[in-house]
Amino acid sequence: MRLLAFATVPEDSPPSDHELTYAIVAAHHDGRLLLVRERTRGCWELPGGGIDPGETAREAAARELWEEADQWVEPSALRFEGFARTALPDHLTRYGALFSAEITDPAPFTPNEEISGISWWAGGDAPAGGPLQTVDVYLAGLTRR
């Protein structure tokens, strides 16, 4: 994935040149970043995914955090960080909403069809089992002001 731009504009002012298609969450606990290992891509990345019809980006972010990592945060408790414009080798350019959250009491994780594991990553080398999605790590760094 390539990061083309990042815009820190109001949440209710998404970019208009491409559709907003996904939401991701940089969740932190005790100074560590939550990463999920996506089975198909085999890499460590931020929890997130597509925005369902009728769903806001904020609602999608909370749902994806729950579905992928078993961590529940009320949508209203998520902090909006900005919009990322990204490109994948086989996809068109698209926009995603980046949110952040503090997890005070992490819940246990159960692997599922999409995610094989989670890691509370402290930085440095990638957790065992796959490479880091460097765009996600960079975006997560933007949430730690």
Automatic annotation (TrEMBL):
The keyword Hydrolase applies. Signal peptide: none annotated. CDD domains: NUDIX_Hydrolase. Its cofactor is Mg(2+). The keyword Transferase does not apply. InterPro entries: Nudix_hydrolase, NUDIX_hydrolase-like_dom_sf, NUDIX_hydrolase_dom. Residues 16-143 form the Nudix hydrolase domain. Keywords: Hydrolase, Magnesium. It comes from the Bacteria. This is NUDIX domain-containing protein. The lineage of its organism: Bacteria, Bacillati, Actinomycetota, Actinomycetes, Kitasatosporales.
